Amino acid sequence: MGAWKEYVANLRGVPRAVWHSLVRQGPPVTDRSRAEAVFQNLFLHIHSTRIHRWSLRWSYTMGLGLICAASFLLLTVTGLLLMFYYKPSTVLAYQSIKDIHYVVPTGRFMRNIHRWGAHLMVIAVLLHMARVFYTSSYRKPREMNWLFGLVLLVLTLGLSFSGYLLPWDQLAYWAVTIGANIAQSPRELTDAIGITRYVDIGGLQKTLLLGSRSVGEDALIRFYVLHVFFLPLLMAAFMGLHFWRIRKDGGLSRPADADERLGPPGEDVTPVFSQAPKKSYGLMAVVRGTGPNVGRGPENTLPSWPHLMTAEAAVFMFTMAVTVALSFFLDAPLKEMANPLVPENPAKAPWYFLGLQEIVSFSAFAGGVLIPMVTLLGLSLIPYLDRETEGVGVWFGAAYRGREVAFRSAVFGLAAVIAVEAFAIRFGWLRSWYPGIPQIVITFFNPGTVLAFLYVAYSVWIIRRENSTRLGAIAIFTCFLAGFIVLTLVGTYFRGPNWEFFWSPSRWPVH
Amino acid sequence: MSVDDRSKALGRRDLLSLAAWGTFCTSLATALVGMFRLPKPSVIPDPSLKVKVGPPGLIPELEYRNVAGRNIFVSRGEEGVFAISAVCTHLGCIVAPVPAGFNCPCHGSRFDALGRIIGGPAPRGLDWLKVTKAPDGELVVDEGEPVPPGTYLKV
Amino acid sequence: MKKLLLASSLVTLLFLVASGLSENVFVPWKKYQKEYSLLLAGRAKDPQQKREARDAPIELHQIVVPDLGAFDRCVTCHRGMDNPVMAGAPNPFRPHPGNILKIHPPERFGCTICHRGQGAAVNFPEAKAIDANWDFPLLPRELVESSCGICHDPKAMEKAGAPVLAEGARLFEEKGCHGCHRLGGLGGSLGAALDSAGLKTRHQLVMANLHGERTTYRWLDLHFKDPQGIVAESLMKPDYPTDEEARALTVFMLSLQAERELPDRAVARDRHRLLSQGHDHGERDGRTLYDRLCRVCHGEGTLGVFDKHLGRFVPAIRNPAFLASVDREFLRANILTGRPGTLMAGFEGGMTEADLEKLLDFLAGGAALPERRAPTQRKLTAGDAGRGGSIFARQCAGCHDPGEKGQVAPTLSSRTFQERADDGMILETIARGRPGTAMVAFAGTGGAGLTKEELSDLLAYIRSLAPRRK
């Protein structure tokens, strides 16, 4: 009988017991329970249990990294949902997008979020990189994480580009046709030195990308598989690495004097140690040296729960609010069904490649392969070339001349790109004067390479004049950023049919 | 933090927390509702279930003719033309005609020549389908519209 | 931070709810379906029907015809399309006019095969798709007949519900469009082939001078009325058709969709024949062929005419004097390869051999035209091209300018002319002229009085105009 009573009592207690097996710690009101809330949870334990106050300042991070992660999450969810209806075949793809647009419940909204979220992610990734650069956060020990970040940048662009083809409309078809031909552009070089017959890197790249000579069924399925499987998988893996390294490298970067700069903690901050500990406890046998906090001042850290969690939720919701608002007012573009017989004019790549398309219009190889590769290489070398130690964790290095150099470089970068563009638009380039000029000359001497050379020369000059590699890095990064922005704007707004210059799209001739 | 400190903190700030996390959860829940609505299609993308089966003269008497590409049997009795669905009412397998009627290959349901259940797990007899005459004189069977067994079209 | 969380969550919630409302509540098609239910209930005969009409579920409807690629949701709003009870109701509820739905059941053909438009859309502006990113916007009612021609022979449709289409097909032949445009295997090569003219999208047409709605059908209509007003460099002869004629031609143009892949079950038998052999193949006689192919430029062909639009004399190809100096071989070569440098483009591939022979018979006008005329045996003194040149400049260049400008008479430097016209013919023509054309006799007392020597010099000069063989 006792067993029966116990059974009935247990049955009554099921909801409570389930709850307690799910949430094991008490309400997160003490430091201990707050820490437990983080490290006992699979999804939260990637965070450290306490976070430095410096890392929570908006003015420092602007939440950009979180926006990238949040938009990736949004894109994953909406993308998975869209996969219920999307059919990756040239015959059905366009119709399935129309169905998603018109009759799938919430389909139009989901697709809009997916589209605008993708654009937002590209912007956020670029800005995040700029933030990390300008605060010198790539410095030792964070060099490897800077490289992971670059991989994530490339993956982001790859994901966005591979998704571009899927609707199978005119916009998609012609943008990807251009992209595939940029992949083929090393042929420009191999042709010029006459070895294409033996070594055809360009042709190989294009064939690998399209699985065929032109954009068709094979290309679509390749892009689909890349977009929904390989690239997201790589992305998730590298995001994991990126986050993991943040923790292993001691959280977000901060200046050595962060505590002084922050001043005394507010009343809601409860430091773990109220004074510098003299001894370290316990771990002597396991850890080399003294304990982690020996000899350090009062900690300026806050429990991650709730402070970091609130911040993360806030940024996530901010990202969502922006994409949702955009998606409510603006529909994702969808042009006529892809028609290989009717080229779009102008056929433009996605906006973040329009800067590239602008220099590709001078030389496919220089613009599509040489300059991007050199840029990526330069970016990855930055942490290994700049080994100064001053100014980590502060925008432009504060006391340092960083802000001034950045400003001057921005002015120089803008002036140079505008001058070179204006010259090329107004007077043309070598081929307009000497029609018979060999392509190899143009490949290496064109407005794009001239611009890149000017930027490099300027930064070398800065290094010598200021006697600082860091300032040189600031100079070249700022110049390239300025160039990227201006070229992208020119490609987006000032290029019309046949890639001719127009002051505004309203002046385009109607074909 | 002592108990006193905590109760002091339970002021404006915690109300704000509550509101913030509350709306956070509400909007996520709303988003979830939208997400769960998506997989249920609002229109079924199948073509019309009506199929032309030829003029009445081509329908065999007291013998079944399978309509190409469709799981339908048409036949003509004394009362007129009728059509029987070949989809088993048990779990949707396609029944095969045998001298005695129809047998289902999946779980052994058996039906007589007019589709009535005579054995096996099927809960009811085979569906009879609506037969109409098109303006051009051909007969049309609507797979989507079952009629009570014993409904014939006089020809 | 909490404030940001609160604010963003509120904004998100707001837009989620707003988009939920705009997708589910403020939807035009739902409003139409409710209106339709009420209308239908009002027309119901008994309470049972009334209840059914009232309780009809509000849901999307569509017609799917896989082999025509149709997913037509038009019926979501046009609920009364096949319901005779709705006769006289306002659109979008009224029944489809005529008995067309009986002959072409919607479940087998859909809507957009005839009406065009974006069948996938569930609101009218996007279904109409004038400004949307869609290749084939909804056809105005007066142009829908064009779609009969997708599957039927247009001429067979005169009494079968598409008189305007049939009229368009007739006008196309009557106005000599075949002269420049190839269609169904017949016609010249000066203009574009029109077999799939109805499949052209607005991106394939020059829209710069088309103000207002930029649709292909408006383009066609205005282009028929004023070709050069729409495409400045167009060579098309303005024909000044009436509004009705322009519309009929537009309808006919829209019906031309040879490249469209259609299931066999949809295409009428006469249409198969049409696509493979062209209109009335084997039945047309020489006169008909002349009217369709040559007349638009050469007129009746007996007199030389100055064509104001082309700005030049068009040779009189049925002129007896001309025919007396040529043979069938010469005419055949001229017709097939054309005259390079002039607007006479070759008809190679634009007519069958049988057609060509019929046409030659007609041009000969019953007279026996030799297959090959024996070269003239007349003894010629070798002329001097230099002296001939100065005579040419004085007497001939006004019309036969060998340069590019001012060429109003046939070009003498073309390969076809130089190879096919023998010396005798050239001398004969200069000396005697071509009665009835602008070419007068240049020898003897009536003309410029050229002597035999001068004629030889002239001939030598004309021969020197021949294009160099490479």
The portion of residues assigned to helices of chain A is 55-70%
Count of DSSP strands of chain A: 2
Tell me the CATH topology of the largest domain in chain A: Cytochrome Bc1 Complex, Chain C
- Morphology of chain A: globular
Strand content of chain A: under 5%
List unreliable stretches of 5+ residues of chain B.
1-10
Secondary-structure topology with pairs:
The complex is a heterotrimer of chains A (511), B (155) and C (470).
Chain A: H1 2-12, H2 14-22, H3 31-39, E1 50-52, H4 58-61, H5 64-82, H6 93-102, H7 107-134, H8 143-165, H9 170-183, H10 186-192, H11 201-210, H12 217-248, H13 258-262, E2 301-303, H14 304-329, H15 354-360, H16 364-385, H17 402-427, H18 430-433, H19 439-444, H20 447-466, H21 469-493
Antiparallel strand pairs in A: 1-2
Helix pairs in contact in A: 5-7, 5-14, 6-7, 7-8, 7-14, 8-9, 8-12, 8-16, 9-11, 15-16, 15-21, 16-21, 17-20, 17-21, 20-21
Chain B: H1 3-9, H2 12-37, E1 50-54, E2 65-66, E3 72-76, E4 81-85, E5 96-98, E6 101-103, E7 110-112, E8 117-119, E9 128-133, E10 139-147
Antiparallel strand pairs in B: 1-10, 2-3, 3-4, 4-9, 5-6, 6-7, 7-8, 9-10
Chain C: H1 2-24, H2 28-42, H3 47-55, E1 63-65, E2 70-72, H4 100-103, H5 106-109, H6 112-115, H7 124-128, H8 148-151, H9 163-174, H10 216-225, H11 227-230, H12 243-255, H13 269-277, H14 286-293, H15 295-298, E3 305-307, E4 312-314, H16 320-325, H17 328-337, H18 353-364, H19 385-395, H20 397-400, H21 415-420, H22 423-432, H23 452-464
